[in-house]
Amino acid sequence: MASTDAAAGKRRPRPLSPHLGIYKLTMTMAMSIAHRISGAALYVGVLLLAWFLIAASADAATFAVFSEFIGSLIGRLVLFGFSWALFHHLIGGIRHIVWDAGYGLDAPLRDQMAWATLIGGFALTIVVWATGYAVR
Amino acid sequence: MTDNPDNLRTALGRVRFLGSARMGTSDAWLIHVTSLALVPLTVGFVWLMLDLLHTDYNGVRAELGRPVPAILLLAFILSGIVHMEFGMRSIIVDYISGHSRTWALAANTCFAALLALACVYATLRIGFT
Prior knowledge:
The structure holds two protein chains of two kinds.
Chain A: H1 2-8, H2 27-57, H3 60-71, H4 73-100, H5 107-134
Chain B: H1 11-15, H2 24-52, H3 57-64, H4 67-95, H5 98-128
Helix pairs in contact in B: 2-4, 4-5
């Protein structure tokens, strides 16, 4: 709104709605932005899936390049981040569908659901990675 | 606004085309339908990936060459990419304005379409070659 302030000059400042910097950060707000960030991360992360499929559709040497990357430390870290974003966004999405249906919006439950998203996202990630390492 | 004597446009003229494009319902419907579909599809996708974790090139191709994993993977890819195109669209309209918004929206659609085509092409190629 900087442009209107400059043009107005002597005019009385327009009323401003309360925004992020004014409200105290709540758990539901934190999980709201975490949902958006994890979604944006998945947007980029799908490139990894595309690489995997393209490599598997090509010859064995091409697939070996992907295989080597995903098995490396950086590859595992990227995959760990991708899987966390996937599970966090999955549980957050279920929470949003429940809210959109009109349930779970009351004071204690909405915060519990926000906490469940955070904890559930990490828990699912750890369970799936433990399964991945266990079934060799 | 109305007390500015320099502006000769009518109140209706100033606000026309600034509001809703009346596509909100179909957008909301699509993002909800894809998100609901993605709940079981994501579980299936993770299951498939865990299954492929310790296999080699030939094992991956054999598994993805079977009809049920391939079709479920294609369903995951298509609903996922439609969902992410809509999600990024809402991020763009929230944070970007003016001409940059137009370009960002176009880039988003093109990126999503190319990604979908690449994934679908690769999946089908695994199954049919």
